[in-house]
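Changelog-adjacent note: as of this version, every example in the card shows the full chain rather than a window. The one below runs 104 residues end to end.
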Amino acid sequence: MFEDLDRLRASEPLRQLLKRYVEVADVQAWQDRVMAMDGLKPRDLVDLHGQLLAFDWLEQNTGVVTAGSPGTVAGCYKATAAGRRALQAALDVPVEEEIPAEAA
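Full-length structure tokens:
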């Protein structure tokens, strides 16, 4: 789990993507898939979504989905409780407070 948090702390795009799923009004509602983020290629988003699913920070709706507008995937993801906790943990530990290995 600590390696997962280290990856989340080190990757701004990963944190930002998870944050988009965590910071919603209704945490139980399925969210549309984030299809674009500034500075990222579509393939990068595929990789980031894969990491969030692999770490169990996102849950995928494999049941009934509603029809969305062209270019969207409606109601397919929601942040898990583990995802919300991981984001909180990643945001609570500023990088500046970490002790460098040579100073320890």
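Structural remarks: The longest strand covers residues 58-60.
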